[in-house]
Design brief:
about 220 residues, four-stranded antiparallel beta sheet, Gyrase A, domain 2, about 50% helix, alpha+beta, single chain
């Protein structure tokens, strides 16, 4: 008589065990993949932050360099303006249309946005013409001319009129641009330029600059 053994329960147990092992393996794989992805994300985020910091630092340096370049360009522009004005005055001096003291006084008086094209001095009377960026610049030029005075120590430019009656004066002929104080009585009515009169003004249609003609008298003797 042959004995029959039912192996079905054993196979079912094996299948369940295999299923659990597969599930454990799948879960373990998912955990490893998730951890790897998390590590990769953190690593990439760190690189992104590092790159962003470097980019911010680079932009900050670029802004600083642009500021420095802007300042250098401004200095170069101012230097060019001064050189142009000195060239104009040298040209006028070469043509012997005015004495040295008058040129010194004019060079000190001319604002940045005013250019002289010509001037002639004869027997204490001066006529000149030039261009300015605006009418305000012409007015500033006239005020600057009035501030050139004779002080007890030579030609100077008034930088401040104090309430106590003293004037702070930048000495032009000292060569050092030193500033000293004098009483109003010491410098009153000793202006270098007097009777300043604006003869005419027109606006150039092309450049929009103001053309002006001016007349004044000069006191070149202290």
């Amino acid at each position: 008589m042959m004995i029959r053994i039912n192996l079905l329960p054993v196979r079912q147990v094996q299948k369940r065990e295999q299923g659990r092992q597969f599930l454990v393996l799948l879960i373990g794989t998912l955990i490893i993949v998730g951890a790897a992805n998390a590590y990769w994300y953190v690593w990439m985020d760190g690189k992104r932050e590092t790159a962003q910091r470097r980019l911010d630092d680079t932009n900050a340096r670029i802004q600083q360099l642009e500021k420095v370049i802007g300042e250098v360009n401004n200095l170069a522009k101012r230097k060019k303006e001064v050189e142009e004005k000195l060239a104009e005055l040298d040209k006028l001096l070469t043509e012997r249309k005015g004495p040295v003291k008058l040129l010194d006084a004019l060079a000190t008086s001319i604002p940045k946005k005013v250019w002289l094209n010509n001037f002639e001095e004869k027997a204490g009377s001066t006529i000149m013409s030039g261009n300015a960026e605006s009418y305000d610049d012409v007015s500033e030029f006239m005020r600057s001319l009035k501030n050139i005075i004779w002080s007890p120590k030579g030609m100077g430019r008034v930088v401040e009129r104090k309430r106590d009656g003293h004037w702070r004066v930048e000495l032009i002929q000292s060569g050092e641009g030193s500033i000293e104080e004098f009483t109003e009585a010491e410098v009153k009515e000793k202006g270098f330029f007097n009777n300043i009169e604006l003869k005419s003004t027109t606006v150039d249609a092309a450049t929009k600059r103001v053309k002006f003609d001016m007349a004044l008298s000069t006191n070149m003797k202290q």
